[in-house]
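If you are new to this repository, start here. Below is one unmodified record pulled from the training split, so you can see the exact layout before writing a loader.
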Amino acid sequence: MKHFFEKKLPHRKQGFTLLETLIGITIVMIAVTATFGATQSGLQSAFESRDQITAFYLAQEGIEYIRNVRDTNGLNGRAWLVGIADVGADPCSPGKSCWVDAVFPVTNLPSACSIGGPTPCPYLRQDLATGSVTYGMYGYTNSWTTTRFNRQIQIQTINTTEVAIVVTMKWGNGKTFVARESLLNWQ
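And here is the target side for that same chain:
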């Protein structure tokens, strides 16, 4: 039984018009472009975070190296800053800058430097040799791969029993990180 008010619609052809297809393709392209943009931004942030974390740990390593020398001197009955800041000729003496290699401190002695100064600090190097005992370690060994990181260590005298260790890390396109810690003579 037919309804009295029901109209019969004219028969329509099935399928998409060219305009509908172009609009659909445009919407898909916008969605894909936005996804790629978000992915690229996320990857860039991840790489920047990785570099910041690496710089932080390299700065902390420099501080720990100086602390270890202080502790070793104390345990062996020597003056607390022997080997890092005991004489004016020492590159790490107060008011000067130096670089240290915490991986091989015996073969790579500190040398005076300054980031952006007349004697720039050398770039840290990383051991990337597969199967190496020191794989992934940072240092100044010539056979290792040069990285983007510079580390400058300064010792600033506060008084006769306290010094400040200031480590400046520089990497990438002018990014800088500075870590500062006080070191006391506990003897």
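Two things worth knowing about this chain: The two ends are 107 Å apart (CA to CA). The longest helix spans residues 18-75.
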